[in-house]
Design brief:
The protein is of the alpha+beta class and 876 residues long. It contains 26 helices and 33 strands. The structure holds O-methyl-L-tyrosine and zinc ion. GO terms for molecular function: aminopeptidase activity.
Length: 876
């Protein structure tokens, strides 16, 4: 059953608009019942536009009240208006002012796009196509204009009135109303427009830029939450300083405002000078926020701030170029966090995220290039491929060009394209021009979907002291792309000698290898290194120098050797993870491990834990046993999640039991009475302690330790970790801990999200019925994306054996929930549905029951364009 028209938009059809918008004046009259929006758009035809070309503006669910050009109302025959478009049939062939009025009902806007209300506050979300839900406009990113915004609202309900840019006037407007006038001098696309009107508290600060300008900073929030905004403010100031230091980028307005709202479809939004944030990415205090929350706040505050240059000053020509701003900005926020915290630990974190979310997307039915060439619903393309793979591409560029070359290219990018809406091609061109490098083959990364699979083989010839190394690349077909081109893949590497030190060579032939970088630019490359005295162990893709999968020919003992000796910390971690994955995946597929393999692995783990040179956060990552989804992905097809879960559990027991006492002693020794600080050092110690607790609970049944930690906790990080572990393993005390947590933090919505997530991750068969009951409770806020994502998103993404249960109950629970949520908020619904992308990897029975659930969703419900597109792509 369908109602939405299935229109596909193609990159190849791009054409500039026949009309330019020279300037924008908006007048919002906000009242409890409704909001009236008057737009005065100064418009002119382009030089090449033929006279009488109709002007077609976008709308979405709008109802036109009045329309005039240059002050004269239009006669009925001069325009056509419906909910989705406004056409002026024969506009003047010169500059003119189009004046329109519409009425909005923000209260009824549950899609949270356009102008809506969140806990009483009026706020907006316009990216990508929300502005057309506010007024008729050329709502596309290549239409840039300066905005002047007047907001009038009741003083009592909305004492705070904010928009983009600088405040130029404010005052009383009579009848209990007041007004504010904002002006943003920087021409911007409509997706960066924002407005906030509400009764909000705030904290303020200031930042002096490198050229000595003082910028007023403020974070607005619900009254009473001000004290929880300080970490966000601190992160903002550090971000501003970092962008000056690292990229020479200075902030450009006199004010920078952030507003935290409770109902938000994403993490946050980079509106010019007025960032709007999901409150979970602003509020933090030790009793209710975890270290992971602090880490995310720092990262997202930085991300949105960095968009001011990469996104706002230089924006995208069209939405196919989304990766231009997102990939680059994610790269920048990753670099910021690496500089602020531990670089290797951040790299591990980012790669884990890439592997657990982007790789499955890239290898399944939803695979698409970082720069897609068609879409039905652009909201479905705010994906991990655009964001995280996009960041990896920028990272590879930096690797290939070196730090200085990369910076030269970035400087040229800012110089050449400031104020423009541009493309991926223009981005690559600046690096070509700045460094004289040919990037034509490299560009394929943006255009081709799929994760390259790298095969490695090697041979050592003692007689000639020659070591040869063959690297082969292959990308499997993805939807719409049956044939793949070879990519230019930077391989950072080293040859590790028998004593663990780096080996050097006297010569190399057969390919490009310079210092520690091999350029794999052919389907297969064989390098011959001469002057090699002993057989080396290759350490490849150091620092994860490219977003690829490697099938390594290394034996377990070689991998464990690297885990103990590689000079590259990322590869040390990765080697041990590979060993763990191989053992569990093997056992799940009927190839049990040998006792000696496990002994060696256990020893490697103990050695790592006892190594005084490694920091705690790194150790915590080393002892994190790969999750069931990760093992499933390694197996790749015909996966039975139950055997994976069983094998993983068996390995945990076999690994932990013999060293339980040592692990417990270490666990106890990490207890501290120091006052909580979210800094990387303390957070690292806590994460190691949690990692040890995980081993002890999962591998030695020590739920008593979880309970003790839960009760003794003096911060949310320790308390949540203990409860979540008990819930996941559904230990005897899990229900009691969940119950205590629920009542202890009753009334705190962000902590309720943590409870929902922990509930959704439970491994027992009762989980679905409990979730059903939670969702059906009359007071469950089904309009709030955070609540829905915490319950349903966590379930589909992190509880693989219950979601893909053999009886199909997990699939049906989700499709039924999606059908219901779709009526309220299609963006949240379609995102939850993407969890079904795992279907092709599952064994036949589960695959079929998953498909049946999707078919039922498709035939029995009227679905949004968002959900329909995802559904059709998964079923294709
Ligand atoms: N540009 C934002 C992401 C974002 C996209 C869409 C939104 O609403 C539907 C909100 C935010 C970012 O990259 O942070
Ligand atoms: Zn972004």
């Amino acid at each position: 059953m369908r109602t939405d028209t299935e229109q596909t938009i193609y990159l190849k059809d791009y054409a500039p608009t026949p009309y330019r918008i020279v300037s924008v004046e908006l007048d919002f009259r906000i009242l409890e019942e409704a909001t009236r929006v008057r737009a005065q758009l100064t418009i002119e035809p382009r030089e090449e536009t033929a006279p009488s070309t109709p002007l077609v503006l976008n709308g979405d669910g709008l109802k036109l009240e009045t329309i005039a050009i240059d002050g004269l109302p239009l006669v009925l025959s001069a325009y056509a208006a419906d909910a989705d478009t406004l056409t002026v049939v024969e506009p003047p062939n010169r500059r003119f002012v189009l004046d329109t009025e519409v009425m909005l009902q923000p209260e009824a806007n549950t899609k949270l796009m356009g102008l809506y209300r969140s806990s009483g506050t009026w706020c907006t979300q316009c990216e990508p196509e929300g502005f057309r839900r506010i007024t008729y406009y050329l709502d596309r990113p290549d239409v840039l204009a300066p905005f002047k915004v007047r907001i009038t609202a009741p003083m009592a309900v909305a004492p705070v009135l904010l928009s983009n840019g600088n405040l130029i006037d404010k005052g009383d407007a009579g009848d209990g109303l007041h007004f504010a006038l904002w002006e943003d001098p920087f021409p911007k696309p409509a997706y960066l427009f924002a407005l906030v009107a509400g009764d909000l508290g705030s904290i303020t600060d200031s930042f002096t830029t490198q050229s000595g300008r003082k910028v007023d900073l403020a974070i607005y929030c619900t009254h009473g939450k001000e004290n929880e905004c300080h970490y966000a403010m601190d992160s903002l100031k550090r971000s501003m300083a970092w962008d000056e230091r690292r990229f020479g980028r200075e902030y450009d307005l006199d004010v920078f405002n952030i507003v935290a709202v409770s109902d938000f479809n994403f993490g946050a939004m980079e509106n010019k000078g007025l960032n709007i944030f999901n409150d979970k990415l602003v509020f933090a205090e030790p009793n209710t926020a975890t270290d992971a929350n602090y880490h995310s706040i720092e990262r997202v505050i930085a991300h949105e701030y960095f968009h001011n240059w990469t996104g706002n000053r230089i924006t995208c020509r069209d939405w196919f170029q989304l990766c231009l701003k997102e990939g680059l900005t994610v790269y920048r926020d990753q670099e910021f966090t690496s500089d602020e915290r531990s670089r290797p630990v951040q790299r591990i974190h980012d790669v884990q995220n890439l592997r657990s979310s982007q790789f499955p997307e890239d290898g399944g039915p939803l695979a698409h290039p970082p720069r897609p060439d068609s879409f039905r619903e652009i909201n479905n393309f705010y994906t991990t491929t655009v964001y995280e793979k996009g960041a990896e591409i920028v990272r590879m560029l930096a690797t290939l060009l070196g730090e200085a070359g990369f910076r030269k290219g970035m400087d040229l990018y800012f110089e050449r394209h400031d104020g423009e809406a541009t493309t991926i091609e223009a981005f690559l061109k600046v690096f070509e021009d700045a460094t004289g490098t040919d990037l034509s083959q490299f560009a394929t990364w943006y255009l081709q979907a799929g994760t390259p699979q790298i095969t490695v083989s090697d041979n050592y010839d003692a007689a000639s002291q020659t070591y040869s190394l063959t690297l082969t690349q292959k990308v499997e077909p993805t939807p719409g792309q049956p044939d793949k081109q070879p990519l230019l893949i930077p391989v950072r590497f080293g040859l590790v000698g028998p004593n663990g030190s780096e080996m050097s060579w006297s010569g190399v032939s057969g390919g490009t290898a310079k210092d520690d970088l091999i350029l794999l630019d052919q389907p297969s490359v064989t390098l011959r290194f001469t002057g090699i005295a002993n057989k080396p162990i290759p350490s490849l893709f150091r620092g994860f120098s490219a977003p690829i999968k490697v099938s390594s020919s290394l034996s377990q003992s070689d991998l464990l050797f690297l885990a103990g000796h590689d000079s590259d910390p990322f590869n040390r971690w990765d080697a041990l993870q590979t060993v763990l994955t191989n053992l569990i995946a093997g056992a799940a597929q009927g190839r049990p491990w040998a006792g000696s393999d496990l002994d060696a692995l256990r020893q490697a783990i103990v050695d790592t834990l006892e190594n005084p040179e490694l920091d705690e956060a790194f150790k915590a990552n080393v002892i994190a046993i790969p999750g069931e989804s990760s093992i499933g992905r390694h197996i790749g097809k015909d996966v039975d999640p139950d055997s994976v879960a069983k094998a993983r559990q068996a390995l945990l027991v076999a690994l932990v039991k013999p060293i339980e006492a040592r692990l417990e002693a270490l666990y106890q020794s990490l207890e501290t009475s120091a006052a909580y600080s979210p800094d990387a050092q303390q957070a690292g110690e806590r994460s190691l302690r949690t990692g040890l607790l995980n081993l002890l609970v999962a591998g030695a049944g020590r739920s008593d330790l979880a309970e003790t930690q839960y009760n003794a906790a003096t911060n949310m990080t320790d308390r949540y970790a203990a409860m979540a572990l008990a819930a996941r393993h559904w230990t005897g005390n899990a229900q009691a801990l969940l119950g205590d947590f629920r009542t202890r933090f009753a009334g705190d919505p962000l902590v309720f999200d943590k409870w929902l997530t922990a509930c959704a991750q439970a491994s027992d068969d009762g989980v679905i019925e409990r979730m059903r009951a939670t969702l059906a409770a009359p007071d469950f806020p089904k309009t709030n994306p955070n609540r829905l994502r915490s319950l349903l998103g966590s379930f589909v993404m992190t509880n693989p054996s219950q979601f893909a249960r053999a009886d199909g109950a997990g699939f049906r629970f989700i499709t039924e929930a999606v059908a219901e949520i779709d009526k309220v908020n299609p963006q949240v619904a379609s995102r939850v549905l993407t969890g079904f992308r795992v279907l092709p990897t599952l064994e036949a029975g589960r695959r079929e029951s998953g498909k049946a659930a999707l078919e039922a969703l498709k035939t029995q419900h009227q679905l949004s364009r968002n959900v329909s597109e995802i559904l059709d792509r998964i079923l294709a």
